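Deliverable D4.2, example record:
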Amino acid sequence: MSQYVVGLTGGIGSGKSTVADLFVEQGAGLVDADAIARELTVADGVAMPMLTAEFGRKILAANGALDRVAMRQLAFTDPSIKNRLECILHPLIRRISTERCRAATEPYVILAVPLLVESGAYRDRCDRIVVVDCPENLQIERVMARNGLSAEEVKAIMAAQATRQQRLAIADDVVVNDADRVKIVEPVKTLHANYLALMAQKLKAGC
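Output generated by the structure prediction step:
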């Protein structure tokens, strides 16, 4: 694995992708668990035969990829379905993300994991955890505007995730993203400099 890995997480609509992109602009590597999940669930994705065998063809979109809306609706109606889905996807995502962190050539890697708190397993893989935070009402507004969901649908998604307090409890660093992109540029630059320094310390210590 890369010499230094920073886990990045946050609730839906918090702006994780925006913050991750800013770290990349500073020179960090990026391994995105969500992007890996999408790779696994395209029409010819590695996970699709297992998912189809587990849940049937009702979860397939017309093009043979995973119908994410249909899958989400199933998971919300039956918690056991969510667990079965995660048992298939999470080991694959962990394996691929570990391989990509190990292969990274940048000074350090941002490992973006939306469900980092919920999985529990990622803390041991990260030297540092940064949480992207914003008020819950702003999360709801952003997701409604972005995805066209109702407030109730967004609240249901949020209820299935870790709470804001749970995320903040594991944070080594917090990026407050409650305004526009410009406001978070300098905080990210400060964290980037800190991570470079911490990485250098780790290398010097031979860890």
